[in-house]
Specification:
The structure is a single chain. This protein is an alpha/beta fold. Helices cover about 40% and strands about 15% of the residues. It is built from 13 helices and 13 strands. The longest helix has 22 residues.
Length: about 350
């Protein structure tokens, strides 16, 4: 699988991106069930990192978005990730935005998507998590939660609470996604008034759930790369005030300067991959300067090599996550990044 990806990629890139995505994951499932992945994938060396009272077997994780519904947990875990984050899941099922909604920019090694939190609903996802061997064997599994598109933005907190209640028992950690550009007005939740209200509501809900289940689950916040300096510092301060446990930096960008003039560059949605690398790293640097060692940062955005992974760590991240890099580089990227960080 690792050695053959360079031969498979041209064929996959001739398919519609969303179709290629689904086909790749279904074939990974088959390979995992037949025991092929264990033979073909070289696993990263053990390199445990502990933060938020969680021990991550290695510092390279899967970013949310690749497995929105938890349908491919065991196959993805077999690729060598130190942790998986699945979702974004919403309280109720929703179809997402109309197709086509995913576009490749191969020259820039970028992807534009406007999926729109398409998922089967949180209850279906939780049921799949419970059936997975990875979860049953104690694998580190984050659940990324969001609001339904039909829920008014002023009522968003209720959706996040409903989703948090549903995933609380099974999640190693919970990520609050307020930074997708593909749900109308969602990024407004990053503003001071709405963010303060949302984080306050979630802090109260988590305290109640902690009492109910006898365990305080870490709560992470995923933010956008398109924020200005003052906004980033404000989010850092509010995260400390409302006891957020880590910040994931960053989601996709709505900026197009790095891909101007390329085919599909004017498509609506979030741009990921190499074009977002610099903006993501800059957000990490600003967060690190503000937070110092009070709150860990997980770096994601534009990691397509071991050197890119090292750059995120040097900027202030404690862990990294991959998504678009896997599409361009294949699963060998996981071990490459883990090895580079370990060095």
């Amino acid at each position: 699988m690792v050695d053959s990806y360079s031969f498979l990629r041209p064929w996959l890139f001739n398919l519609d991106p969303e179709k290629a995505h689904n086909l790749t994951l279904s074939n990974l499932d088959r390979a995992q069930r037949w025991g092929l992945l264990q033979c073909l994938i070289k696993q990263p060396a053990s390199d445990p990192r502990t933060l938020c009272d969680i021990t991550f077997p290695n510092p390279v994780g899967l970013a949310a978005g690749l497995d929105k519904d938890g349908k491919h947990i065991d196959a993805l875990a077999a690729l060598g990730f130190g942790f998986l984050e699945i979702g974004t899941v919403t309280p109720k099922p929703q179809a997402g935005n109309p197709k086509p909604r995913m576009f490749r920019l191969p020259v820039a090694q970028g992807i534009i998507n406007r999926m729109g939190f398409n998922n089967d609903g949180v209850d279906a996802c939780v049921a799949r998590v419970r059936r997975s061997s990875f979860w049953q064997n104690g694998g580190v599994l984050g659940l990324n939660i969001g609001k339904n598109a039909s829920t008014p933005i002023e009522d968003a907190a209720s959706d996040y609470v409903l989703a948090m209640e549903a995933v609380y028992e099974i999640a190693t950690y919970i990520t609050v996604n307020i930074s997708s550009p593909n749900t109308q007005n969602l990024r407004a939740l990053q503003g001071e008034e709405m963010l303060r209200s949302l984080l306050g509501t979630l802090d109260i809900a988590r305290a109640r759930l902690s009492d109910r289940f006898g365990k305080r689950k870490p709560l992470f916040l995923k933010i956008a790369p398109d924020l200005n300096f003052n906004d980033i510092e404000l989010i850092a301060d509010l995260s400390l005030e409302f006891r957020i446990d880590a910040i994931i930096a960053t989601n996709t960008t709505i900026a197009r300067e790095t891909v101007s003039g390329m085919e599909y560059s004017n498509e609506a949605g979030g741009l990921s991959g190499a074009p977002v690398k610099s903006a993501s790293t800059e957000v990490i640097k600003i967060l690190k300067a503000r937070l110092q060692d009070h709150l860990p940062i997980i770096g994601v955005g534009g990691i397509l090599s071991g050197g890119d992974a090292q750059e995120k760590i040097a900027a202030g991240a404690s862990l990294i996550q991959l998504y678009s890099g896997l599409i361009f580089k294949g699963p060998a990227l996981i071990k490459e990044c883990a090895d580079a960080i370990r060095r």
